[in-house]
Amino acid sequence: MRDIAGIVGLGIMGGAMARNLVSRGWEVVGFDLSPERREEAARNGITLAADVADLARRAPLIITSLPSPAAVRATADAIAATDVPPRIVAEASTLSLEDKLAFEGTLSGAGHVSLDCPISGTGAQAETRDLVVYASGDAGAIARMMPIFADLSREAHDLGRFGNGTRMKLVANLLVAIHNVASAEAMVLGTKAGLDPDQIVRLISTGAGTSRIFELRAPMMAADRYEPATMKVSVWQKDMDVIGRFAADLGVETPLFSASGPVYAAAIQAGLGPLDTAAVCRIIQSRSGGEAISQSDRATAIL
Known about the structure:
The structure is a single chain. This protein is an alpha/beta fold. It has two domains: 5-162, 3-Layer(aba) Sandwich (Rossmann fold); 170-300, Orthogonal Bundle (N-(1-d-carboxylethyl)-l-norvaline Dehydrogenase, domain 2), CATH 1.10.1040. It is built from 14 helices and nine strands. It has helices spanning 12-23, 35-43, 52-58, 69-80, 97-109, 123-127, 139-150, 164-192, 197-205, 212-223, 233-250, 255-269, 280-287, 295-300; strands at residues 5-8, 28-31, 47-48, 61-64, 88-91, 113-116, 119-120, 132-135, 155-158. The strands form two sheets. Strands 3-2-1-4-5-6 form a six-stranded parallel beta sheet, sandwiched between helices. The longest helix is centred in the middle third of the chain and has 29 residues, at 164-192. It starts with a strand and ends with a helix.
């Protein structure tokens, strides 16, 4: 008989993971502060908990997917204060190592086992289980979580000691930051040269210059449609700050990552925070003396 799976945080990532688990036969208990997210979760077969403590009473295996260090701290405190048997709590958010270690300390002090398990992939990838789990911490606890990971991702890896998951995720996200801006540069260059945006997407995706980020985000750039967001620019800024501090603490020079930062900052200043990070294409387009890629670009493209 399967354990009940609990998910705290039913946003873009957590909601998709919960839905995928339900579709594969898991009983999922979820909680989110947002009434809209709770309503959506209930429509998709997820049992709603009254609060984090209620979720911890029901679910022995828990995933937290949360937007901020404050939310993660509050969740750890709530679980630690609840009188329940030891729980395994896999923290899947992208946070600093310091925040992850604080989470682990709070829960271990209350007799629970915490894992550092950030997820590589976007919200769109979460919908199709095209995710990779970077699990780290107690090997036995990771093994117990693996059936859950198998039903919400395409791969899950045990990276060893607690914190290695976050270390790997920050390396991966450094590349995501660069590839996203590079994809926008390529799309603007091609369309300014008179090429059809959809043709750029098709041909680059089959050649040596492609990347997973180009394949995910260039179609959004070609259509100039950035909603629904797979990762909001406003949320991504938190990840950028964490990566920057991580590299600085290790004394690693990051010229390309550092060059991408002002582009994301400009997107925030331009009011693009609620949109997908692919919307940086609009910043590069405007700086290149043009409007956003549009249907008129297709009509006049040189084929």
